What does this fold into?
Amino acid sequence: MNTRGGRGTDILIAFAAIVAASCVALGAYGSHVLEADADIKLMWDKGVTYQMWHSLGAIAAAWLATQRHGKARVLALNAGWAMLLGGLVFASILYHFAIHSTIYMYGVAPMGGYMMMAG
It folds into this structure.
């Protein structure tokens, strides 16, 4: 990883890469294993899509942090974590609903959406 970036960017990049890789597995599960109607599969795909794009955004934010110093570096890292964690929160609610047809925590999906927008 980038030696200039430091430990914070390395951790963000590693975590974002793991999350992005899980998107591939989740997409395959949704396409080949999930037994649901078209609307539920569309919801699953939306979760995978949002999760993947925000994982890539977190990687981009980590790279940006390696190019900045001081407050700008901290802001870029915080934006990356907000995108990554928001994507996970939002997508996990969609995955849970697609599998169980219940919402177990009301208001969590919008919170994930706010975190993605904050990033």
Notes: The chain has one domain: 7-118. The CA atoms of residues 38 and 74 lie 42 Å apart. Residues 7-118 form one domain. Residues 70-100 form the longest helix (31 residues).
